[in-house]
Design brief:
By secondary structure, this protein is of the alpha/beta class. It has helices at residues 18-29, 45-56, 73-83, 146-166, 182-185, and strands at 10-14, 35-39, 61-66, 89-94, 109-114, 120-125, 138-144.
Length: 206
Amino acid sequence: MAFLHTITEMVYRTPSDAAPCLQAFLAILHNPHPTLISAFNFSEPGMLDQIDIADAAGVPGWIFADHSQFCTPSEKNLVAARAAKWRNWEITVGTVEYGPKPGEINHRKNMVVLAPDGSWTVWRGSLNFSTLAYTENNEASVVVSNIYGIDFATLFVKQRALARQHQPQYQVAQPLLVPRDIVTTFGLVIPAPVPALAELSTLASP
């Protein structure tokens, strides 16, 4: 949904801010609290290394990655091999969940974290989740915004559910994953689902 919020925002522009930007990103990623990531680019070994570290530390996390990053066997096999070892991080692969053209790319670059005091830290920007992105002209920002975090998490839950129901061809096996209820973990109240405007089950397989 559209919303208006007044915030103080920390903005990073790469490549000039690459070092502090990466430091801020890793500090948020390696927090000890529940985390959500929605990413267009998520098949680079350097990024997967960081998820391995977070997973080993016991940080519970959920990823929604765009399907276009998994259309080659090498990319999908790389992610599948890593995800098969994760106990605390779940990955869902899919597309735009609804709108005029369901099936288009998920182009978001967001990470949100829910702290024990109920505050939501948000990472967002044009910066892809890759090490290469820090050498390019990109932007990222960090804000603390409950309205943003709750809205994003609610959308994430809907998107994840639709992809898992209608796009099994994109999913990877995670036999070691510890089951967690995402809605309960983030204390969400999920309204009635928004109907898709096209049949997701008719989307072409990669």
